[in-house]
Amino acid sequence: MTERSLRVVLAEDSVVLRDGMVELLGARGCEVVATAGTAAELLASVARHRPDVAVVDIRMPPTHTDEGIRAAVEIRATAPEVGVLVFSQHIETAWASRLLAAGSTGVGYLLKERVARTSEFMDALRRVADGGTALDPEVVDRLVHGDRTGRVDGLTPREREVLELMAQGHSNRSIAARLVVSERAVEKHVAAVFTKFDLSATEADNRRVKAVLAYLSETGG
């Protein structure tokens, strides 16, 4: 079955990288409906085009600090149906936690230097556009294994491993394959994480992501 074409807004202040990504996305069947070199242009483009997903760099003009991820958080608040994939060289843990706290679906955070294959980036892009989660393992490690203490300290080493893989968007079956354990064992670890983080079941909540958010909220991220 042919994959649907994604409508993308691309925010990247480097003209060379931006043009290269436009060419790459076009070759992979995506439609780049707008590009942006500043956070203001990004917000205007998303409001105008309502894409499937926005690809956002963190550091953009005029200060080149956190304009991009601030805009990403605003998109999550004002256009929750638009997926947001942060694609950057930097890990900003405080803003990453705010980005995740805005909701548990349609969000990703990848590090440019750690994406080894184009297929990895495209898989993450489609996952985010479809309402999933795509977090680089290094980002997850910073968020989950921070210096401050919290309920995560009550997890066993195996439960921590499961939590990291959950946050990266893996299913129970995928986690079981990676850890070489049974799917039933993974289900027990997941249930233990939910219990220790006091996450009760509701129809609307995505507890897999909220398990990570529970840690982030108590560390002040």
Total domain count: 2
- CATH first level of the largest domain: which class? Alpha Beta
Tell me the number of helical segments per DSSP (H or I, 4 or more residues long): 10
Q: Report the structural category.
A: alpha/beta
What is the chains' assembly state? single chain
For the residues shown, what is the average pLDDT? 83
Element order: H for helix, E for strand: EHEHEHEHEHEHHHHH
- The CA-CA distance between the termini, in Å, is 41 Å
CATH superfamily of the largest domain: Response regulator
What would the CATH topology of the largest domain be? Rossmann fold
Weakly predicted, low-confidence segments: none
| Approximate shape | globular
Q: At CATH's second level, what is the architecture of the largest domain?
A: 3-Layer(aba) Sandwich
E-strand count: 6
GO molecular function: DNA binding
Domain HTH luxR-type: 148-208
Organism: Streptomyces vietnamensis
Protein name: LuxR family transcriptional regulator
Element layout with pairings:
Elements: E1 7-11, H1 15-27, E2 31-36, H2 39-49, E3 53-56, H3 67-78, E4 83-88, H4 93-101, E5 107-111, H5 118-129, E6 133-135, H6 137-144, H7 157-167, H8 172-179, H9 183-196, H10 207-218
Parallel strand pairs: 1-2, 1-3, 3-4, 4-5, 5-6
Helix pairs in contact: 2-3, 3-4, 6-7, 7-9, 7-10, 8-9
List keywords for this structure.
221 residues; alpha/beta; Rossmann fold; Arc Repressor Mutant, subunit A; six-stranded parallel beta sheet; 10 helices; 6 strands; 50% helix; DNA binding; DNA-binding; LuxR family transcriptional regulator
